[in-house]
Amino acid sequence: MFAAQLTPTATLRPLEPHQAGEFAAHMDRAREHIRPWVGPSFVTDDVAGARATLQKYADATARDGNRIFGIWLDGTPGTDGTGGTPGPTLVGGVMFVEFSAAAGTCEIGCWLEPSAEGRGLITAACRMLLAYAFDERGLHRAEWRCRADNARSSAVAERLGMTIEGVLREAWKVGDTFYDKQVWSVLATERREPHALS
């Protein structure tokens, strides 16, 4: 199975339906932290929901469409500052929310639980997705969409060399509230710092 080293202690590899239990446990740790920033269907509540999410991506991948990858971190500390797990733990991931070789475009998304923030994992993983999209598959354009008030997400888009193209007014609904959505992009000809996905 493909795996890429993000850091000496973190790896990126595909998330597959057989990992539904692990994904559900990860969602239990991450759910409330990521809920405001991701689509509601992604924040699953049980193993069946986790399996359905991963199966949806597996089916899309089989059609050369959307894909999802997990980030595993060695020696993850406990959320209360004690304990934790000594082995690799799923702490987040990245995905091609949209992927169309025919159109030459993709959209990248991400999520991360609090214990793994501040390590550069998302930026490193997204650079690998951009390398795959542009260098390996020959896509022309990659997009990034996030809530306009999600400063951490906007900062990743900037680090990836993306340009903000505009704001979709009140296009992101959470509960009964509508938020503005930013649209960022980078073209293959503009990309900086290529990293191989191997």
From TrEMBL:
Catalytic EC class: transferase
Highest taxon of the lineage: Bacteria
Keyword tags: Acyltransferase, Transferase
Pfam family, one: Acetyltransf_3
Residue span(s) of domain N-acetyltransferase: 32-184
Gene Ontology MF terms in the entry: acyltransferase activity
SUPFAM superfamilies membership: Acyl-CoA N-acyltransferases (Nat)
Enzyme Commission number(s) from the entry: 2.3.-.-
InterPro entries: Acyl_CoA_acyltransferase, GNAT_dom, Ribosomal_N-acetyltransferase
Entries under PANTHER family matching the protein: ACETYLTRANSFERASE (PTHR43441:SF10), RIBOSOMAL-PROTEIN-SERINE ACETYLTRANSFERASE (PTHR43441)
This protein's name: GNAT family N-acetyltransferase
Native source organism of the sequence: Lysinimonas soli
